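Quick start: what a row looks like.
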Amino acid sequence: MEEVPPLSSNALTLDWSFGFKGQVHSLASENRSAIFYTTAHTGIIYDYASKTQQLLQGHCNEIVATCVSEDKKWIATADSGPDSVIVVWDSLTGTPVKTIFGPHEGGVAALAISGDSMFLASLGKVQDGMAGGQDLSLWEWSAETDSALYTCTVPNVQSSASAHTSVAFNPGDSREIVTNGDSNIVFWTWESYQLVPFSPLLSKSDRKTLGHFSFVSSIFMPGQTSAITSTTNGEVVLWDAVEKEEGDNNEEDDITGAGPKFSETSPLKSMVKSIKLSEGRVNFMSFVEKYLVVAGEDGCVRFYDQSLRIMAWYEDLNAGPVTNVSFATNLPSNVDERAEFCCPDFVVGTSTSYIIGVECALFQEIEPDNRRGAVLVQGIGDEVPCVATHPTMGRLVIGVYDGTLQLWDLMSRTLLVVEELMGENGAKQRPQCLQFDSIGRSLAVGMTSGLLKVTDPDTFQETASFVNGDQPLTYLRFSPDSTWLACADAGNYVSLYQFAVVEEDVSLQPEDDESWVPPEPSPTWNYIGRYKSHSGTITGLEFATREDGRLALVSVGEDRMLVEYDLTDVTAETGLKLRNEPTKIEQTAVPTTCLWHPLLGGDFEDRVITANNEFKFKQWNADNKSCRKTSLCPTFGGPLTSLSNIPQLNPEKNQYGPSPYVVYSTAEKVVGIVKVPLDGNPAKAMGLIAHPTAVSSVSVSGDGRFVVTAGGADKCVNVWQVSTKALEMKIEEAVVKADGAGGSASMYSELIDPETKEDLIDYFYYAQLRTQGEDTTEEREVTGTVPLKEIPNLVRALGYYPTEEECANMISEVYYANFTETGETTDVIDLDTFIKLYVNHKPVFGTSKDEITEAFKVLGGNIQWAGLTRLLKEKGESISEEDLKNILTSLMGKDGAEGMNPSSFMEAGGFSDKVLGFDEEEGEGGEVV
C-alpha cells in the first residue's frame, strides 16, 4: 500500500465514503470537474477528474435535503431528527459558513435556495402525533440572526401522509414560493412581510379529471407567472395567474380548502391544462437554458421547449429510475450554440445509486452503447449488512441485501468485481455476514437463508457450500491458523468446519484397471458438527491461540452464558462438543460482545473480555472463568455490540500482530477506539458518530491503518484512517492534567459528584479506624489502606448495593490485580485504587420504577407479601430471616416492618414507594432520585 498522509488530531478520521443516496448536484464549470452528493450524514464534493473526495461533516442525522445556488458557490444541507440543523457550505473550500440549529421541531423535509442566493426556504418534517402541523420557514441565511425571517403553518396538513415534500422559489422573484405534497399544492408570497398561502382553484370537472393524481413536485417557469407540477402518472399540470372575480372564494372550487384564499397580495393561480409527458412517474423537473427537463421512473431524461414540444431525449442511460438531473454552469466547448438543441453537460442521479455523467453531444450518437454516459459514482443499491477487509491486501468486500458482493480496491477506490449470490435452486441469496481467513485464501459468506459459502476472495467463485439449518447466519470466525471456521446462527447454534485432507474413497477405483493411480488429495472444507450452546441470542464468537499453542473457541449470548468449545481431537465422528459446562457470567446484565484479550497470554493466564448492556467491560480467566476485572465501557452511545483488535507491525517478526488498541461499535451510530489495559479511564477511549442510525458491521484492515464501517439502511460504507498517536496524545494530556490535580485517581473522581467524593474519603478513613478498633487507646498506624473485606461496606455506604457475587468479584479483582504480571496477590486496597474500583463497578444508571415493574411481571404481577418474602429468603442469593428483618426495619422503621400483613398483596408501585421509599420524581434516564 502507498503511504497514508498525516492525520488530524482525531483517532478516527473519515477518509472515503462509498455510497450515494439522495440528490446529485453538478458543480462543474470551465475550470472544475466536480459534483456534490450525500451519503448518510456526510456531504461529498467529488472531483471526478482527480478522483478525490472532500468530505463535509456537521450533521448527526441523515441528510435528507440539499440544494445548490445558481452560481454553484453555496451548498445547503439539512437533516431530520433530534438536534437537526441546516448548514450552508462554501462549495470551493468545503467549509461551513452558516449553521441554523433546530430549524423545525422534527427536522427538515425539503429545502430550496432562492435565485439570488440570499434566502433559504425549508419545510418541516411531519411526524404523526406531533402538535402544530407542518411549517414553512424563510431564512435570510447571510444575516447574523439565527431566527427565521417568516414562518407559517402549511394549510390542511393533518398527518405525515398529507405533508408537503417539495419546495421551490420562483427564480425570477424570490418573493414567490411553491410547495406541494401528495394531494395538494400551495403558492406563497411574502411581499406583505408575512408568508401568505394560496391553494389553486379547480373546477368540478377538473377536480374529477385530476382526482386520481398525486402531485410530486412543482417549479416556476422562468420569466413567467406560470408554474408546473409533475404527477405520478407521467403528466404535468400547468398553473397560471388568474384575475380575482366575484365568487372566487367558493369553498367548493378549492381543491384543498386552504385559507386564507385571497388577500391583496395572494399569488392567485389556476390550472390551465395538463399534458402527458411520460409513461411512468415523473420524479424530477427543472429548467435549463430555454428547456424544460423531465426525468422519472422510466430512466429517461427528456428536454421540451416552453410550449412543451420535445426537443431531445436520452433514453439509453440504463442506470435505473432517475431521481434528479443537474447541469454544469457553462455550455461544452464542442457544442454549437446555434444548433437546434444544445445545453450544458449534466449529471444524472438514479434510485439504484448510480451517478451518470452525460455530455450534451451524446444525443447525436447513433449507437445506443455510445449514448449511455459515463459512470461517475457507483453507489450501493440496497442495505449493507456486512463488510470485510482483506488481511494482506488493500481490498474491501461489501455484502449487499440485493444479493450481491462488491470487491473494491481500498486505495484506488475502484470496483473490481460484482458477483450475484445464488443458491442451489437458482434463488438469489442475501448475505448477512462476511469473514476473510488470516492468510487471504478464503472468504466465507453467511446468508439469511442459513447457507454458508466459502469462496475465492479474488473472484467470489464458490469453493465449498454448506446448509446446516434454515436460520440466518450471524457470526463467522476463522481460526488464527485458517484451518477452522466457526459460525453462529439465529437459532443459537454454533457450527464448526475444518480445512483438511479427506482420505480418498477406494471404491472410486475403476474395475479391472490395476494401473489406476488415485489423484493427489488436496485439502477441502469439511463439516464437523454443530451444537446448540445457548438458549438466548448469540452475541459473540471468537477464536484464539492460547499461550500453550492450543486453539480455543468461545461464545457468549443473551442467556448470560460463556461457553468454551473443545477443539482437541475433534472430528466429524465426534462432532462439536463443549470443553466444560457453560458458565453464567452475569446476574442482571446481558453480554453484548466478546474478544480475547489481545495482550495477555503469559505464564499466568489468558483472558476473555466481554461487554454488557450495563456499560461494563469484564475480563474472565480463560480457564476457571472467574472474573478478573470490571471496568467502565465507553458511554458515548448505547451498549457495545462489537470489539476488534487493531493489528500493528511487529518489527522483530516482520508481521502484523495484536496491539493495545481495540475498535468498538454500538448498535446505533457510534464507533470508537479504546486502549487496553481496560481500566475505565475515560481518557483512554474516544467515539464518534460514524453513521446516522444503525452500525451493521465493522472491519479492520490487515495493517491496522483503516477501519471500515457499514451503516445498514443508509446504504453507506465509510473508511476511517486510524491514528493511535492521536489517542496517545489525548491520554498524555489527561495524565498531565491529573498530575496537577492530585494523581491518576483524579481522572476517575471527575465521574463522581463532589458530595459523594467527600463521603467516599470520609468512609474510607473511617474504615481504617474500624479495622484497628474504634475504641482502642493504642497509637494508631496510618497505613492508607484497608483490608479487602471492607470493600462491600464502603460501596454500600455510598449507596451502591452490589450482590454477594458482585462483592466477591470486586474483592477478587483487587486480590489478583498484579497476578498476571508478577504472580503475586494483594490483601489490602488504598484510596486511589478504591476510587477507581467504585467508579468502574457502580451502575451507570440508577434503578428505575420501570425496572421494578418489569421485575414484578416476572414474578407474576401482584404477589402476596408472604410469597415475596419467601422468594427473597429461598431464591437467588437468599436472605436469612434475621437479615431480612433488619433490612425491612432499616427501610420502613420497626413499626412499618412489623405492620406488613403477610396475606396482603404487593404490586410494583407499592413496593417501590412503601418499602423502598423511592421519591415520585424520576431523574434523567428514568432512574429514581
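That is the whole record. The mean pLDDT is 87. The longest strand covers residues 685-694.
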